[in-house]
Write a structure and sequence with these properties.
six-stranded mixed beta sheet; 14 helices; three-stranded mixed beta sheet; single chain; alpha/beta; 365 residues; flat
């Protein structure tokens, strides 16, 4: 399951620098707006120490972690909802992602031009979120007009989608994003079908100077408070520091470098995990002689749905799942030990997958 998060923000806030550091994809980075014109897509792994623990018991040469696709999208400017700058392209690209990583400039540097002339993170956030709201206002207006015509004929589906569109417009008139509304499952499905940008969860990424990477600064504190008021996520990192970390290939040397600057892990690790939490995903594992692999499922997924992540045939022909916990494997030393101790469970179609389950599926098609 490919999770895709889009890095967005005003020009020159450090999006491409961060993207390069996290993915080593080599996106062009320059001190002028729109240096990233086509969306660059890279893949970052989700660090998970449980993979190493599994490999310590089940010897295999191939270990495949879960991944998140990161899309670096062209910088947005005031007026983008009306097509200013690369507005139309930006809005189209961001609609295709699952979540928004909103990079906010939280560092002062006279050598790096700010598109608005000064550093003010809350103003910058407001600029982007206003443009997204205006774009969604246009989308919801068109959707209302479209369904109002068929709703007059008594079409129930049209009436339903019309009501959702009207509620969206009420939210937008109050300056609130779609995610701020209270929606039933069916209503939320209609919102998502409309490709409303402000329905996507947001993680604010405070890009600070190198000296503030471990402690943050006054700019980042303002963003954190703003995010907390809105129930959004927020992390602090330094794109410059992350670029340095990316150049260190040896894991032990990376750990030493991080310790020296007061960090326990890189921004990559924190960012990837935050995206997972943001989207409500969790991990289960498959482990055998050929490979150990992490798979991504929505919280609350059943065993057949988890099997379907591997292949649709697995879900269609699902019979049962053999399930055990890593902690039990470490204690008992092998799957044979698990069976002997009654720790290898047989679960059916109704089983709800738990984060960290190790699973083996039986199916027939």
């Amino acid at each position: 399951m490919a999770l895709q998060a889009g890095i967005v923000g005003l020009p020159n806030v450090g999006k491409s620098t961060l993207f390069n550091a996290l993915t080593a994809a080599g996106a062009e980075s320059a001190n002028y707006p729109f240096c990233t014109i086509e969306p660059n897509v890279g893949v970052i792994t989700v660090p998970d120490e449980r993979l190493e623990r599994l490999q310590a018991v089940i010897a295999t040469k191939k270990v495949i972690p879960a991944v998140v696709e990161i899309v670096d999208i062209a910088g947005l400017v005031r007026g983008a909802s009306k097509g200013e700058g690369l507005g139309n392209q930006f809005l189209g690209n961001i609609r295709a992602t699952n979540a928004i990583l909103h990079v906010v400039r939280c560092f002062d540097d006279d050598d790096i031009e700010h598109v608005e002339g000064s550093v003010d993170p809350l103003r910058d956030i407001e600029t982007i979120e206003t443009e997204l709201l205006l774009a969604d206002l246009d989308t919801a207006t068109k959707r209302r007009d479209r369904f109002s015509k068929t709703a007059k004929s008594g079409d129930k589906d049209a009436k339903f989608h019309l009501a959702v569109a009207e509620r969206l417009l009420e939210l937008f008139d109050q300056g609130l994003p779609a995610r701020a509304g209270e929606w039933s499952d069916e209503e939320w499905k209609s919102v998502r079908e409309a490709q409303v940008i402000t329905s996507k969860p947001v993680l604010y990424v405070c890009n600070v100077d190198e000296g503030s990477a471990a402690t943050g600064n006054a700019h980042a504190e303002k963003v954190a408070a703003y995010a907390a008021e809105r129930g959004a996520g927020c992390i602090v990192l330094s794109g410059a520091i992350e670029a340095e970390i990316a150049e260190i290939e040896d894991p032990e040397e990376q750990a030493v470098f991080l310790e020296e600057i007061g960090l326990s892990e890189s921004g990559l690790a924190r960012m990837a995990r935050e995206v997972y939490a943001l989207l409500g995903y969790q991990t289960y594992f498959t482990a055998g002689e050929k490979e150990i692999r992490a798979w991504t499922v929505k919280e609350g997924a059943t065993a057949p749905q988890a099997a379907g992540v591997i292949h649709s045939d697995f879900e269609r022909g699902f019979i049962k799942a053999e399930v055990y916990r890593l902690e039990d494997l470490e204690e008992l030393g092998s799957e044979a030990g698990l069976k002997a101790a009654g720790k290898l469970r047989i679960e059916g179609k109704a089983y709800v997958v738990q984060d960290g389950d190790v699973m083996h599926f039986r199916f027939n098609v």
